[in-house]
Amino acid sequence: AQKITQTQPGMFVQEKEAVTLDCTYDTSDPSYGLFWYKQPSSGEMIFLIYQGSYDQQNATEGRYSLNFQKARKSANLVISASQLGDSAMYFCAMRDDWSSARQLTFGSGTQLTVLP
Amino acid sequence: DGGITQSPKYLFRKEGQNVTLSCEQNLNHDAMYWYRQDPGQGLRLIYYSQIVNDFQKGDIAEGYSVSREKKESFPLTVTSAQKNPTAFYLCASSIGQGNTEAFFGQGTRLTVV
Questions:
Q1: What pLDDT score was predicted for residue B1?
Q2: Which of B27, B56, B58, B59 is 20 to 30 A off residue A99, Cα-Cα?
Q3: A28: which residues sit within 8 A by CB, 6+ positions away?
Q4: How many CA atoms within 13 Å lie on the side-chain side of B8?
Q5: Per residue of chain B (113 residues), what is the pLDDT tens digit?
Q6: DSSP label of A81
Q7: Which of residues A56 and A13 earns the better pLDDT score?
Q8: Chain A to chain B, count of Cβ pairs less than 8 Å apart?
């Protein structure tokens, strides 16, 4: 069974600084995908970044980068130059590529607050 | 614009009543999913469907039912058998293959009164 662990219920960061949100995962499957989503207070889930288990390089998308350490089973999200609009709940998720359902398994989330 | 539309945004239900949440997508995605989110928690899978006229139970299917008569639509019924239905419900869709993300609707907040 897959499991995603996010150990930081809440994080604070000063505007314009970088912040790292932690995510560890557990799976016995060799092929999987890791995702980060942002959930503002309005409720919708916004896709941020994806990392495949066989990708050699860490994924980057604008101010978002994923620090993927396969041996440690971690997939931390790094947000550079934080903005007030980054304040939201952030979820790490995983999908097993071998599963017929291909559903996402989510962590419990980290509430990020950006301070002016 | 392509996307997923959930309605209504807010829903109130009396105990003992069934209620149906709507989810429509125009992304031409094969796979659709229903998730439940409780305060301070992540999303848990209720039901999923990978093709029309077929659907499978997720981790917390008890007290819920779905149908998939059209590719675009995947309604969720919360039945009176669901003991704690008050929650935030999110519908998602994906292509169903390859390394692609799931797209989510805006969610429906259901409250039992």
A1: 66
A2: B27
A3: none
A4: 7
A5: 679 999 999 999 998 899 999 999 999 999 999 999 998 888 999 999 999 999 999 999 999 999 999 999 999 999 988 889 999 999 999 986 666 788 999 999 999 98
A6: S
A7: A13
A8: 63
Between CA A63 and CA A94 the distance in angstroms is 21
**Burial level of A21, CB count in 10 A (0-12/13-18/19+)?**
buried
Cross-chain Cβ contact A109/B45 below 8 Å: no
Q: What share of chain B is helix, strand, coil (3-state, %, to 5)?
A: 0, 50, 50
| Minimal-distance CA residue of chain B relative to A1 | B59
What is the distance between the alpha carbons of residues B64 and B77, in angstroms, rounded to a whole number? 6
The token pair at A50 is 């994806």
Distance CA A5, CA A72 (A): 13
SS3 A56: coil
For B103, phi then psi, to 5°, come to -105, 140
